[in-house]
Amino acid sequence: MKYLIIKHLLIGLLCFTTATIATAQPGAQQQAIDVLKGVLAADPNNYDYLMAYGGVLETDYPLVADSVYRKAISVNPERSEAYHNLAGIYILRGMRLDQEGDQATDAEKKQQLKATANESYQTALPWMEKAHAKNPQDQSALRTLVSLCARLGLKEQETAYKSLIK
Is residue 15 over pLDDT 60? Predict the structure, then answer.
């Protein structure tokens, strides 16, 4: 039993280190993906491994990261991190679309990009609300909820979440 615990601690450390390196060093992402696929093959329902894998995938493969985070939620629906990260995927997508909209010279294209950005923010909102429900003390989730509600024009919700920030 002692060796099994040590093995899991070492694999967890490897996942964390791999995910950190993948985001810090260009070209290391595929290596990180391969390592994390290997540990997930051995333990496909490990929440922490799924979270590390999703983190490596988020930037370049957000749809795959979305499915990985949804699996993490199915493995452990009481933890808040996967909900938070799912919201993050859609918030980042919305921000990218907003930037594209700001740079668009065609008014119709600009309006279309802004509308699609709002859809992404709308998709992010319930995920962040679930993250907050699972961890009400998470100030980051509260600040994100305030920003999302402000962006979406949900003044009453924005005010309610602001009142919870310490």
Answer: no
Token digits for 16? 């964390």
Buried b (16+ CB within 10 A) or exposed e, 104-139: eeeeeeeeebbeebbebbebbbebbbbbbebbeebe
**Spatial separation of the C-alpha atoms in residues 166 and 6, rounded to whole Å:** 38
130 vs 83: CA distance, rounded Å = 6
Instruction: Please determine, for residue 132, whether its predicted confidence score (pLDDT) is greater than 80.
Output: yes
Q: What is the mean pLDDT of residues 151-158?
A: 97
Residue 155 burial (C-beta neighbours within 10 Å; 0-12, 13-18, 19+): exposed
Q: How far apart are CA 161 and CA 156, in angstroms?
A: 9
Task: Give the model's pLDDT for residue 19.
Answer: 54
DSSP one-letter code for 64: H
